[in-house]
Amino acid sequence: xxxxxxxxxxxxxxxxxxxxxxxxxxxxxxxxxxxxxxxxxxxxxxxxxxxxxxxxxxxxxxxxxxxxxxxxxxxxxxxxxxxxxxxxxxxxxxxxxxxxxxxxxxxxxxxxxxxxxxxxxxxxxxxxxxxxxxxxxxxxxxxxxxxxxxxxxxxxxxxxxxxxxxxxxxxxxxxxxxxxxxxxxxxxxxxxxxxxxxxxxxxxxxxxxxxxxxxxxxxxxxxxxxxxxxxxxxxxxxxxxxxxxxxxxxxxxxxxxxxxxxxxxxxxxxxxxxxxxxxxxxxxxxxxxxxxxxxxxxxxxxxxxxxxxxxxxxxxxxxxxxxxxxxxxxxxxxxxxxxxxxxxxxxxxxxxxxxxxxxxxxxxxxxxxxxxxxxxxxxxxxxxxxxxxxxxxxxxxxxxxxxxxxxxxxxxxxxxxxxxxxxxxxxxxx
Length: 430
Prior knowledge:
By secondary structure, the chain is α+β, with helices and mostly antiparallel strands. It has eleven helices and 20 strands. The protein has helices at residues 2-14, 40-45, 76-86, 132-144, 168-183, 206-216, 264-275, 278-295, 331-338, 349-359, 409-427, and strands spanning 24-32, 52-56, 62-73, 93-97, 104-116, 119-128, 159-165, 189-200, 221-226, 231-237, 240-245, 248-259, 299-304, 308-311, 315-326, 346-347, 370-374, 378-383, 387-391, 394-403. The protein has a 20-stranded antiparallel beta sheet that branches. The longest helix is centred in the C-terminal third of the chain and has 19 residues, at 409-427. It is globular, with a radius of gyration of 22 Å.
């Protein structure tokens, strides 16, 4: 492909310039022509270098494809400190935060393709504690390994086994434990999840699964992180954790769920029911109240927009957008205040978190965490829902449901079936 080949050659030529044999950072950036022929996700998927990270904003206006790590970070706070010390040119640090913060996969990419609106660029990030000259040599060798090819081909998969954790009987027991704890006043709400392991006779192509999800799951954030040739985490999430532009913050309460429908009239009937259902409205307002309480003291202004229905391929949700003006641009504080939201954990957060840790029969890891990027001027993360972990021949699908007083195991099981179907159906499509 001429455009990416030419861009890579131009970057490599720029790395032939003289660089000082001293510590520092440097960005080499060139404009990239936007054509329908280039798909950054499929191009990433063809490379034999990791980590790989692809992220697209749900509006489609912002997109990142990152390859290789110049610097890796063990916390968002560490990444923010790095930007404060070294950034002089809109550096973005991107990746994942796990649900419980026990895992962090944030990195400054060696190579980054970035699109904002109708403009795209390709850049190499140099960073060294000893010699920029040596790092430029390493970056040039890195580029020489890259291919201009793209790969996102789906292939037929044969299912060997399917295991739910918990199964339907275990789910009923879990809901009973939760509703009894709610009745006893231990917490108001807890979000319980199920992991489904689908094992195939051959390894699925994680990048192809992401591309298939992108095609059909509209109005969603899309995120893809490949750690190596066998391990990846990906998904298409409707939920923003936060977006910051300077001091202006946007977050949201996305809670309350009903099935969607291919017939617009039927879908509207379901949406009308959702808007008027007491249990779902209570669930959404619990999230709103919690977010507002967490932000108090750190914002100068806060506004809650009217409720709206978000219609997706398999489900519909109630969403209330919350806008605020921050006192200070601090992304680590945003993360600690907003993740996990009550929409993925519960209320009060500590008690719900303890219940999840005690009773869920699997580790959430990256599920219900966050994916996105930070920079000095702006940041944006989505909640990592409607997601899957690919490990060799096994795909683990995740889905959760908010449990409050009056929750019924049968309806909550159907809710997680609907949510998991968004990705599950793609593994068996022709």
